[in-house]
Model the fold of this input.
Amino acid sequence: MSAATKLQAFWNHPAGPKTIHFWAPAFKWGITFANIADMQRPADKISTPQQCAVTATGVIWTRYSTQITPINYNLMTVNAFMAITGMYQLSRKIRHEMSKKEAAA
Done:
């Protein structure tokens, strides 16, 4: 299969660049990259409601992306990363809160 044929198949795919199914996950990577950048922030600055929303969104939409036709692997990947980074941030926040309680005791 030639490169031109592969490019045409990608372009005309039901989840290709001519559809929202391509662009929504592409822009959603921005949220994931921002969450990765926030790993450098102090744990006391982490927003628990925000990270719960990021984690829940990641888990729900990862599952959804495997149930639609065609399966949208781009959507699945970005949401899996959202769930993972959200869970990591929540674990940082929980560990920080627990260490504050231990220090106060």
Summary: Helices lie at 3-12, 20-37, 48-67, 73-104. The CA atoms of residues 25 and 82 lie 11 Å apart. The mean pLDDT is 92.
